[in-house]
Amino acid sequence: MAKKGLSGIALARQRNTMGKNYTSSEITDRFIEWLLGRLREGTEPPEWRIAIGVYHQKYYTLDRDWYVWGFNGEKMKYLSLPRKKAPRVRIHKLIKDPSTWEIINKEVEINVLKLMEKEFWSYFPGYAKAIMNPGEYMLVPIDDDWQNLSWKNLIFVSKKEYNEQGTKRAIVKLFFQAFPNASDQELAEKTGVSRVHIRRVRKELEGSGRLEPKIPDQLKSVLGFDVTSLHVKIYEYFMINGVKKSNLEIARELFPQQAEQATTNAAKNLLTAPIVRIKKRLIEKGVLEESPLQKHRDEVINLLKNKNSNHLTNQQIADQFGLKKAQVDNLSRTLLSKKKGSAE
Question: How far apart are CA 308 and CA 310, in angstroms?
Answer without folding.
Answer: 6
